[in-house]
## 1
Amino acid sequence: MDKKPSSWISHIEAFVDSSRPPKQQAANVDAIAALVKNDLLTLEALVRDMELYLTTSDHSIRARGILLLAEILNCLMSKPLDGASISSLVEFFTSKLADWQVLRGALIGCLALLRRKKNVGMVKSSEARAVAESYLMNVQVQSLAVHDRKLCFEVLQCLLEVYPEAVEMLGDDLVYGICEAIDEEKDPRCLMLTFHLVEILARVFPDSSGSVASFAGDLFDILSRYFPIYFTHPRSDDLDITREELSMALMHAFCSTPFFEPFAIPLLLEKLSSSLPLAKLDSLKYLNNCIQHYGTDRMIKHAKAIWSNLKDVILNHSPHKTLFSTSELAGNMESEENQIAKEALICLQTAILHLDSLEKNPILSFIVEDEDIEMKFGLVSNEGTGTGISIESRRQLSAVGNILSVSSKASMSGCTRVFQKFFPRLMNILEISASSSSNGCNTNNGTSSLNFGALYLCIQLLASFRELILTSQDFSPQVITVQDGWWCMLQHFSGPLAHALGSALMGARSSELVNNNTGHEHAIYEVKGLQVLATFPGCYLPTSEDVYEYILVIFMSIATERFEDAFLWKLSVKALIEIGSFIEKYHDSYRGISFNRIVVERIVSLFQQDDSTMPLALKLDAISEIGTIGVDYMSRVIKLLEEAILSKFLAVCVEGRLEAAEILVPLLECYSNRVLLWCYTSGNFDEVAMQFALCIWNQMESITIFDKDAKIQDLFDRMMTTMKLLVGGCAEENQSLIVRKAYSVLLSTSFLSEESLPFSSSKLEGLQVTPDFVNLSWRDEWIVSLFASVVIALLPQTPLPDVKLLLNVLTTFLLKGHLPAAQALASMVNKWHVNIDKSEVPNAYTLDEAIEMILERSLLSVQSSSNLGKSDLLNKDERMLSCLCLLNNNSSFQSNAVVGLAWIGKGLLMRGHEKVKEIAMLLLQYLLSNPYKELHSDASGSGDSLDVHTSLATSAADAFHVILSDSEVCLNKNFHAMIRPLYKQRFFSSMMPVLLSSIKQSCSSSMRVALYRAFAHVISDAPLAAVVAEAKKILPSLMDSLAMLSEDVLNKDLIYSLLLVLSGILMDDNGKEAIIENINTVISDLIRLIFYPHMMLVRETAIQCLVAMSALPHARIYPMRPQVLRAVSKALDDRKRVVRQEAVRCRQAWVSMA
Amino acid sequence: MTLGLINANPVVHAKKERVARAEDSHADDAVDALDVFDSVRDIRDPEHPYSLEQLSVLSEESIAVDEKLGRIQITFTPTVQYCSMATVIGLCLRVKLMQCFPPHFKVDINVTPGSHVDEEAGEDRRCPTSETILVDSLGTHKPSCAV
């Protein structure tokens, strides 16, 4: 106990010594706070011992002492303290507020005490008032530094928020004090606080006779100076405050009390006409909020001014482009202009909703009676029949349309008034007469095009009316209780209107539509109009049943007959889908029936007829779109598609009608891309996919014939992709169902069922099937491929039947050059279960055994066919030997085996298995074996053998590409591969030293080419960051490989990716150093590549690299300048424009460098 | 030398839209008038902050290219008849073409007949000292290495 005090006193001394670094001081505070927190030291004892520091007449020591006490209290925020100590501490700090030398400590102390929660003992409200009084009397906020000002505002904020009733008694003194404190504040951090202060201050004094009411003018005067917020602080700053946040805070302050109304509204309206877009935007936002907060009584007198100002903004800032494009496009263009118009409309809507007293809505009356609107209405609705409309009138049109639609959207009464005033006139202009007969399509038969302005406004009105009904329907089921006059009017007009729109749509010649925008615009609004008319909810449908059906028929006739006009076709199909979705959403069974009859049935039958003129792609479009309406529709579409696919499949594979393959491919595409995708998002994927996969396998059993045909190959690729998607998306149990089915079909293949072959299960143990024995039919190959695609897409946990047999079969096919089999094997080893319980499944392989088996099989079979082999199992060295034996063997299995090894290596590498090293070494062995040596020892068939060797070495080199590149077909996330992070980097760093040293040791040129090829694959497929880090080591070899490989045309893609690696190195700082060290070779190699004849991209990239090199240190590149300039000016004559342009740039860069 | 501008208020025309060329991966791209125009359209007028295209001194139609014979012929129209800058403009064009096209092209630069009083003198009346002006107009970085 005796030691303790002395130790913490040293902390105090250390803290008071202001020369210590801040970090150390903070540690001191923490140390003392920890003592107090753990009751090793009482607060009283602390204060008593600190007495000297707290009361000394040395200002700096006193300030430090008080600061220390305050900081300690700050740390004890959650420690319970008794009332007496809190009282005495508050009293102390309150008195210290008067001592300006120690102000910071006093502020922090007050703040720490005021912020305490009730459960740990808080300050009494009388004490809080004392703090406030002392604060108001003693603290001159604006004479302090930023940090202290911020503390002051925090104290005020805390007082107002936590002790409102205590400080309220201070009344005018408090408000005046706050005014004084926040006046002229400029720091953004403090401003955030001051704006907030005003907001809570208004809450504390809500009375109209209160202090805020009497000081409102002064307060607002202080606030208004900041509006609109002008904030130029760079974003990257540590302040972490944006202009938007400041503006938001100021807005809340503006809206905080209705007493600001007489000052705020005139200011906002004035700024609304400012020429600064930002000021406009802010004023609109503020105004919108103020209308909501100040209350109707206060705002109603400003109605006229608000309307006239808003009108100006809307009329002058409406975008003209929204007319052009469909709604989604318009949403993307968030230009300032658009934002202003949007905010203005929102504000107008608020005004209409809020400024509504005694059933008299002043704003609405202004709108309806406004002369400007009247004039513009007359102007735009009469303009432009068909031909182009000027941008200005387009703008006016959209402005008027928006105003009308906002005012009719706002309320039922608004809708009534707007509708009554404008709708009959629009009908008049469109020359549509109200007739009760639905066949009143005697309107303008001759001229089919409607007046665009009137059409636009009319559709806007109808659409907003429909929206109003839809939104208000949620609150009360019966909106239209009285059969208002306008409602009757709408009912009367809707029939003829629909007919007019329909006939205009049908009448428009397609050439007209294709060739100009006006036609498109017309079509957009005509379609939209019909769609709106057809989608009024339930009982409010203004149109009669036959008009509704007429609309559907119109759309259908476009969908079935006008397919050569893609734009119109898409529009109307989309409209149909919208109508369908609407019916689905509101469960309108009555209209659903006619929709089914007219639309769905028709499209279905259209789809089933083979002979129609409509292109298949469009049919598929239409039918898959119909499916997206809802689950019922989709299940129907799925059934339909599946039937079609299966019947076509039968036609192709059983009856041998190859031409059906052309139809089957797009069918499968549509199925996998659209239907399956939809199922995936809507959640019933499993069921659908499993059923369909089983169906396909059922069909596979019965297929018979084939000859090799390009069409069939195409079809089969599609088929495999679909199968992978189906299986990949399924859950485990469904996958195992599919696998079992597929397995049973696999067993029926000729090579597995025939007794004569050594595959029969009894003999399977000892004998291996060698590829030579198996003569495959096309059917077998298809079944194996399809089976392989099932295996590729399986989840790791899905069990496979009879793994041994599968490994055997797949390996056999691998050796026959069957790529899917290799990929399936790779997937198998990649997803192999490590923890298989041996006792449970006695026959199960471990992963290592499986790999051993595959490797031996691949090498042994090759060996046995080359008559050099040993019959027994091979150990490692012997395996190397056998791989060397491959060289003398001209069977095609060799390169197949190499490709297979590559895929299996990839599977192992991705899961991070050690065996991949062995495979990589095997591959390297192929690269390193010298054919010449063999040639000398074995003179026969020299030329042939050399060819075989080079092709083998090439495929061994390409194997590295397979191992490192990402595959779309298998071993990826979609097909549930196990992927260890950074596996590429690991392979790169383990292979690179080996490759580099073998390159160094290699003697023959053909061997070097192969090695460089492998090297090139490894560095171009590995992540760039890893390669760049090794830039110094690999750059010489990189340049050599560029030089070597550029001799063969076939390597052009490889050259290109090497150049990309080089340019990546050029962009990196370490890389640049490596480049500078090898500057001569790099430049001369690049110059050679400028004239690379086989690929434009190579020439272009080489020149770009040279441009980048012109920024390297001058002294190093200057000697190369003449050489580069000479080469580049020759490139000015390149065949390709892009290259010439790059050459000009490059020349400029190198010329101006001197 | 007059102190004021020769043409104080030139008529400024809109820039023509840049056409993205269709990529044809197999065929050769021959040098055509648009190529030439693209390389010279952004040369700044010696007097005004506008490009030659904006002042309508040049257009795509005023350029003729014969790739087989290796000839480029540019005809430009000074904004006023007494334009003393015509030679500078001609020089700018020549240097720019030298930079952008292989040396085997023969470049002819003329003024439109009737558009300039010194038509006969033509572009060849250039003076070597104008290189510094030239460099500014072409926007190269360092004046010391004009050509």
## 2
Amino acid sequence: MEKWSLMTIAVLLALTVRWAVSLGSYSGAGKPPMYGDYEAQRHWQEITYNLPIRQWYFNTSDNNLLYWGLDYPPLTAYHSFVCAYIAKLINPDWVALHTSRGYESQPHKLFMRTTVFVADLLVYIPAVILYCFSLKETSAKKKASTCALCILLYPGLILIDHGHFQYPLSLGLALWAVLCLSHDWDLLGSMAFCLALNYKQMELYHSLPFFCYLLGKCFKKGLKGKGLVLLAKLAGTVLVSFAACWLPFGTDVEQIMQVLRRLFPIDRGLFEACMFSSPTHCPDKVANIWCSLSVLIKIKNVISPRTQLKLSFAVTFLSLLPACIKLTVQPSLRGFKFALVSCALSFFLFSFQVHEKSILLVSLPVCLIINEIPFMATWFLLVSTFSLLPLLLKDELLLPYAVTAPAFLAVCLASFSILEKTSAEDLQLKAFSLKGYMSWFKSFPRIVRSLFLLSLSLMGVLSVLSAALPPPQRLPDLFPLAVAVVSCLHFLLFLVYFNIVILWDSKNRGQKKIS
Amino acid sequence: RAMAAGGRGWFRALALGVSFLKCLLIPAYYSTDFEVHRNWLAITHNLPLSQWYYEATSEWTLDYPPFFAWFEYVLSHIAKYFDPQMLVVENLNYASRATIFFQRLSVIFTDTLFIYAVHECCRCVNGKRAAKDILEKPTFILAVLLLWNFGLLIVDHIHFQYNGFLFGLMLLSVARLCQKRYLEGALLFAVLLHFKHIYVYVAPAYGIYLLRSYCFTANNADGSLKWRSFSVLHVTLLGLIVCLVSALSLGPFLVLGQLPQVMSRLFPFKRGLCHAYWAPNFWALYNAMDKALTILGLKCNFLDGTKIPKASMTGGLVQEFQHTVLPSVTPLATLICTFIAILPSVFCLWFKPQGPRGFLQCLVLCALSSFMFGWHVHEKAILLAILPLSLLSIQRAKDAGIYLILATTGHFSLFPLLFTTPELPIKILLMLLFTVYSFSSLKSLFRREKPLLNWLETIYLILLVPLEIFCEIIFPLTPWKRHFPFVPLLLTSVYCALGITYAWLKLYVSVLTERIPVRQKAE
């Protein structure tokens, strides 16, 4: 079959799954008074449509910031405005000021789902398709479409976007940026990344590798000649795109400061407590290091928020450093993708105010290297989906979770036969393993495989338990916490692994080329 | 897309994949058939056998043969662990989450039989065509065409019915006949008939084929029948099987003296010629012609407007359809038409035996002919022709062309089954998925032969796209929607009727002209 028809089939399948998931429930469905992310998006439409742009980020009588106030950068607000405009055409009640609060109905759900679907179809999916076609290994024409199928069927993103409710625009734009960089269109790439950053500030997780990669590229070209020109051009592009996005707010400094305060409310706590969605108890259990440590010590009680901030900053910085330095010194596309993974993962694990959905920022670059290290990528993607389980359970998305996660595993098994790719070479650990322990590494593939199966069964059992059993009365958060700790341990190992791959990488490659 | 090395890994991946998709569709819209089956669960669970075919609390009385009732009986004993409330006869339109979950899962699980049957069918197809690419293997294509069949997916897993395992039985019996395990095949088909009697449409093909290839054990050298090879033993065995199965199914009701009641439930000729939504068959064209003539007559004053019954103008919405110009059609007339339409194919099977292939052709023709001329045909019945035709389509380019026309129009004609807006993208996406796959895979399979479709057929199929856009998107926005709500259904069914009639004729011509061209004149 032709490669285009294969790709069409892969995309159609992915779209079908997306729409089928979107038939289910969404975040905060029928849960007054605060509802969930769905209501947040609807509320932003209401705000942006009815209020003048100067009031969007300010607390006024018409804009109660405690009720889902805008806390994303301007592009999100513009997007909401466009959606609101269409909503107004269909049914003005959906975005009426004040009275539309908590509006829920079947047609409205259909409308909201369609907006996500369209955003996905226009931004994220084309980027994935083009990315897969641009992969080097496309000599076997199937490869591109299988790759695309695996990336597009990644359950975490589908469940969060089309189930929980969120727009895939920032990730899509980041993907466009990676795509442009891999085609050496550095200016377009940095513009796309600026747009992504201006859609969601969480994209900062990806900013360091972008910065280091482009900087390294400039160094490589020689900082006195071409490199300087490129650097100047890049800086110009970034400035212009930021200015374009913030233009309506540029009228006075107070506006900009207020937006920034909304974007980075550093007084919230070390790991994002769900301040809004559940008023009674239960801070969300995020699978990062701070939340897992809190099982042992209550950090909140020991250290002041200021010190917390400093501590997390220091740890994050330290964990980022090796990958970033390596990338700056030896900028390569492959290293760039791996650095995206490890930096985002460091941020997720160690930084301040993390939401469990942020794991998607790590998953996206992992998707990009799924054809290079299919085994590890699949494993990681499954763990990341698993780490979202408590959130999905709250949104009553258990069924789509229970279906899409095994389906994803099946697709990866079928298309990459991952279980046969567990040797040190397949895991890109050849360079590392050459250091000596040859005898030990003989049984390495088997050990890795059994570890994988063990972790799968652990996740399966925990999923079943948290879905089926009511938690014991004294420990209401037992299962979410267990899920968080288990995923966190996985993520730590993955962080170590990715850093090893990055740091031991190109020497070996260079040798190969010479020989 | 499964590339799992070697063996049947890809088959498992395909089956698993489609099962996951089915599970995702659990929260989707379901039709009144959901309540029908819930009611049958309740009836068979609570009432004694003697009441099954008399109970009429709900309007959805039991109108499938006894084996299906027993099937519901068995299911009901699992259902009580999910939600006992669904087993109360008086709980009309009861649909708790557990009920939905249970019913949907029961369809998905019974589909295992279908998956097994497809597996067996794939083994029957000779995979001699050496394809280095798994995606171009005929068996792989066949497995996708059957397992991922669009019609089956939306009818069973969205609309809600149990066609999966029934078609599984049918395909399994076909596979057994292909493997020359005749008795097993006959047994399976007999059982199938007592599950759902609509399969009686294809019974002539089974009867003649078994008679010709099993009861007569040898042929003459020129392929004609050797009368002396008649085997009494084989006939007795066949007869025994059929009688035993029938006795098992209908026997209890015969003893109770309820057979007439059962029969009246199974064959409700009181319903109209066409279903509420006209199935795209000959009668749809006939009705449309009648309507066109009526309008023409009114325009030219040949007809008196006051004498025309009012209901006739809302055709497509009411079941009873009064013809105004053309003669009205009686059940007997449709029976005769069907019989005449089936006859040549059966003759063909008898006089030009071609083994399993001839049998399959005859089976498809029987199904299609009954669909074309039957009384009160459901649009879903087209699957009875599409699924067996998939088996033929991967063997010959000519059949592949017919398959593409029939499958595309037939599946398109199922669209009105799902009329709710949230399911609109699902049905379009699934339809595109299946159509793109069937076209590209069959095209690559027969890429050395001439194009599968000629330009007229291509244009006809492409025009389905604007038709869909008009019916689902443009028409609801126009003011006609209030006065002529039936127009989209009418257009769809008439347009699809053209394609299906064409496919039927083309298949007939290709079967009749094969090998012995003289026979075509005899027709």
